[in-house]
Automatic annotation (TrEMBL):
Keywords: DNA damage, DNA repair, DNA replication, DNA synthesis, DNA-directed DNA polymerase, Lyase, Nucleotidyltransferase, Nucleus, Transferase. It is found in: Nucleus. Residues 87-143, 160-197 are annotated as: Disordered. InterPro entries: BRCT_dom, BRCT_dom_sf, DNA-dir_DNA_pol_X, DNA_pol_B_palm_palm, DNA_pol_lambd_fingers_domain, DNA_pol_lamdba_lyase_dom_sf, DNA_Pol_thumb_sf, DNA_pol_X. Residues 1-84 form the BRCT domain. The keyword Nucleus applies. This is DNA polymerase. It holds the Pfam family DNA_pol_B_thumb.
Length: 543
DNA sequence: AGGCAATACTG
DNA sequence: CAGTAT
DNA sequence: GCCT
């Protein structure tokens, strides 16, 4: 539609389409198979422009997201999916309108003509042609193009503005920042902001990890969790973090059904994109990105590879780029570190969950061996075991002794490891302290018997004085820990596995400039106290 | 635009 | 040091 | 992903 080449972005799109084998024509003929309309062009305008009364059978009319998705997913995605529909498109076979179940309360723009009813309500309002996209003057075309495609992909198809009666917003399909309605954050917190600014930290609230089917948002939560799973498996830690936070607030607001954009975006941790996703889930009962992500074979392989101990996102991507598709491929052809080699060898073992009872057995074996080395050294099983989990991903064991320092305990650790290897309990080491003051040992252990799976086991050396901080750290869960640490740093303190420190001087970006002075390290509860966090037993530290 | 926890081990 | 793990 |  209206292929004016002076818009660099559109030109790039056209070129990209051609690159992928499309034939682009500027005049309508019977060779046309798809009509791609700019985002803010309405169906009737297309008819007008083409001087047709209806689009012939078999010709797809889509918005620019469609070619973008095709490239993205490496196949021709269904142009009839509602994401790709042009506003005002005749809803032939009951094309669900994304917002029909989610009436927007009080549109901002003042107009209230929602396209929730059939297209008749969508009168063509002759609009000015799309505004010029202020092109970024820098960068090569390729970069700008990639950005444009990315934008197209990430811009949610439900253009709220269209539905709110955009007065004339200068929005184009790029620039997600142009979201006109910024949060009302500041206004809501005038009097009580000082008091509850810290209540946003997850460590302030009790969680048990139990899901609440009563929550009216359970379906939304379920889908968002799946999406988070995918980002997590792709090691996209920041997106994962955002999803986790958003899901968490959704869980806590278990009295209201969040169904509109306005409702959603007013929640802390829910921004423009997640709000749109929530609306999408509520109105369509699914999430398109999720469905494609589930299918994308590249992601599947990436997930497979990054599941290997010692293989992170970077390595996994390299393996995929190298064309490997199976663990066998990698084992044979790739250059691996020793831990990675073991990681592949024991891939299925390490993926298995460990029953709580077995964790205990491993702990007992360690504990028993320890007694023959030094009576006074204690071992404690930490991690999800301490949180009461029915099964665990690995086994975390703290070695400590009243009054002992790292060096003394490190010696004990070495003896212990040797002894346990002799007993055929330990099967391999994966990451072992280099120095005498090393504090951790990662490896694998196995119960008696050939068929038993190898288990990931970690030993952690903890001086007697630091036992409280260490307990806190190694009990987790990770989210809880990060939350506690973030809170500490916002209060001018620093929390790590050794203790809680004050007077930490931080430069810009919260960069740590000095160590600070120790406040507490031996008593777990006191650390909670000093931070002003209500104490929570391990089983309530699941965020 | 840049942070989002903080630290230890590998190669 | 970058990458990985906790 | 969101927030400052």
């Amino acid at each position: 539609m209206k292929p004016c080449l002076k818009r660099a972005e559109r030109k790039m799109r056209i070129e990209k389409a051609q690159e992928y084998g499309a034939t682009v024509v500027f005049t309508f003929s019977n060779t046309v198979t798809h009509i791609i309309a700019d985002k803010d062009i309405k169906y009737n305008e297309i008819l007008e422009f083409l001087q047709l009364t209806e689009i012939p059978e078999g010709i797809a009319v889509t918005n620019p997201r469609w070619p973008g998705d095709c490239i993205r997913y490496g196949k021709l995605v269904d142009p009839k999916d509602f994401w790709y529909q042009v506003p005002g498109c005749p809803t032939e076979s009951q094309q669900r309108n994304p917002l029909q179940d989610a009436p927007i309360s009080e549109p901002i723009g003042g107009h209230s003509s929602l396209p929730s009813s059939p297209p008749s309500s969508l009168q063509v309002q002759p609009r000015p042609p799309p505004k010029q996209q202020p092109e970024t003057p820098t960068n090569s075309q390729k970069d700008a193009l990639d950005e444009a495609i990315e934008e197209c992909l990430t811009t949610t198809p439900i253009n709220i503005e269209d539905f709110l009666g955009s007065s004339s917003s200068s929005d184009t399909e790029s620039s997600p920042e142009s979201s006109p309605k910024r949060r009302k954050k500041a206004s809501s917190s005038s009097s009580n902001s000082a008091r509850d600014w810290q209540s946003h930290f997850q460590c302030m609230h009790k969680h048990t990890g139990a899901l609440n089917p009563e929550n009216p948002n359970s379906r939304t939560i379920q889908i968002l969790e799946e999406m988070m799973q995918i980002y997590d498996s792709l090691k996209d830690q920041w997106r994962t973090r955002s999803y986790r936070i958003a899901i968490s607030t959704l869980k806590s607001s278990n009295t209201t059904y969040i169904s509109t954009y306005e409702q959603a975006i007013s929640l802390p941790g829910v921004g423009d994109r997640l709000a749109k996703k929530i609306v999408e889930i509520v109105s369509t009962d699914r999430l398109q990105r999720l469905e494609y992500a589930k299918l994308d074979p590249k992601d599947q392989i990436l997930k497979l590879f990054h599941g290997i101990y010692g293989v992170g996102l970077v390595q996994a991507r390299k393996f995929v780029a190298a064309g490997y598709t199976t663990l066998e491929d990698i084992k044979k052809n790739a250059t691996l570190t020793e831990p990675q080699r073991i990681g592949i060898e024991r891939y299925s073992d390490f993926k298995q969950r460990i029953p709580r009872e077995e964790v205990k057995q491993h702990g007992d074996i360690v504990s028993t061996a320890l007694k023959t080395i030094d009576e006074k050294v204690q071992s404690h099983v930490m991690g999800s075991y301490r949180r009461g989990a029915k099964d665990c991903g690995d086994i975390d064991i703290i070695l400590t002794k009243e009054g002992a320092g790292v060096e003394e305990l490190h010696e004990v650790l070495e003896k212990l490891v040797e002894k346990l290897f002799d007993r055929k309990f330990l099967m391999c080491g994966l990451a072992i302290a280099r120095h005498d003051d090393g504090t951790k040992w990662h490896g694998a252990s196995r119960l008696e018997g050939e068929g038993k799976p190898w288990r990931r086991i970690d030993f952690l050396v903890v001086p007697g004085e630091e036992i409280g901080a260490a307990f806190l750290y190694f009990t987790g869960n990770d989210v809880f820990n990060r939350s506690m640490r973030l809170l500490a740093s916002k209060k001018g303190m620093r929390l790590n596995q050794k203790g809680l420190y004050k007077d930490v001087v931080r430069g810009k970006n919260r960069e740590k400039l000095n160590e600070g002075t120790l406040l507490e390290s031996k008593d777990e509860k006191k650390i909670f106290e000093i931070l002003g966090v209500p104490y929570r037993p391990p089983e309530h530290r699941i965020c």
